[in-house]
């Protein structure tokens, strides 16, 4: 069994893009710095999506220009189309040499209707659009990661056949993505399903070419991660405090919380390079930025036990 | 792999005993009826602990006398001492023939300091006390289940050696308990730890003699249940809505939620006999009884998706 696991932190992009309160750029950078200090090796920082669609990420260029470099840390930025790639390349050029390394990421769904709803294209149109993004990005020296949404179920179509998910995954790898992250967008995945999907996917890809992006909507995220670990995967996505991931309702869970993932991994003896107290500090900051308690369980347990200890000492 | 899993519902006892608001007996019985209707095969109904310690359960006799019988359903009642056994036997006698079957349960910790704090006895004193409860209960035709708290960690001592947990388990089985439930009282357990503990325990006990009682304080409950399933266990404890289990703070998770457990089991193809809509109805009722949202994730996802659907239809 591998002893090192790579945690992909997606909170700053996925978590902050849907907030009612638009978090000011300096506060985003404060969170990014703290996550970087905590030792997270991969951080999804923002998205060069059109500000027309997601006004909260209109500052993507400023964010990328100011990303704090740390040894071994690579950032990711979503790039939905050729225009987005242009913006990313401009921001990188502005940041100059010595800037933190930034990879690109492209995303699509395994189901037609979710893809249509989310990025306003059919799957065929999306592949065509990615031809204008991925090969040019690679040609400019960028690394590109792929995300497949609705890999465990679609809010419009229900069950999604694992064969379809593997087909999309293969297309993204063939385009040149170094890794594809399989997303349980609505948090319906269960362990046998994860095992079956990974069996099929690992017949076509190496373990390091795959990642799991689980949602904890029904409490099954870490059980599915365990299946992924047993299948040989070494990369898992998560979000600080469980921020984002389109939870159904306030208090409901979306993205797997980074603290929960890291807690389990460390408890199992895996190395992540993540510093626990600094990760908790980042979770506290994320809560302050969005102005409400986040659903991450290990975060809440840690903060509550500190309060109890402080009470005993005081 | 076995295809049938037994879900032990502990909400009515474990969940309601620590509520600030004492839930009136008729409301407790309403919840018990709904859980029985939902098809849960085992329900921990109350405790014959001294009302001095837990006033909220002073109505244990009335509850036991009124437990709704259902085919295949057995209730459990905690019996901490000889006095408690006397009260249980009296309540059973009062309920008469045709009453629902009720088993007894005894509980202790794997760690000295938690046992002392929780039941005010050393481990040695507890074994001695159980000699006055378990054999007499068996002699009266009762079945007795055992619980081992702090089986994955102790709030006062930290790590608890699995060998100690297995020793307590063996003592309880030797006393005549038909099953021992290993409790992660503070929700610190991770999968390798669960695997190691079950390996040791299964060298001394049959799978059906063991159960897991996981807490979801750090999000790892279902990952640990998955390990239990893979080890051949077929019995898992959970609490409706995630009620109870001494969560650290409001909003923090204690007991694994029954809905989360049943969601994963059904998703994996296991039969539980539990009816999903009625289980959700029980979760809604539990929330009303305690007057706040409960932490169970699948419950919240289900209720939120209904609200969304109702909004779309309206």
Automatic annotation (TrEMBL), chains A, B:
A Pfam family hit: HMGL-like
Biological processes per GO annotation: ketone body biosynthetic process; L-leucine catabolic process
Highest taxon of the lineage: Bacteria
Protein name, as recorded: Hydroxymethylglutaryl-CoA lyase
Keywords attached to this entry: Lyase, Metal-binding
Organism: Anaeromyxobacter diazotrophicus
InterPro entries: Aldolase_TIM, HMGL, PYR_CT
PANTHER family in UniProt: HYDROXYMETHYLGLUTARYL-COA LYASE
Family statement drawn from the similarity comment of this UniProt entry: Belongs to the HMG-CoA lyase family.
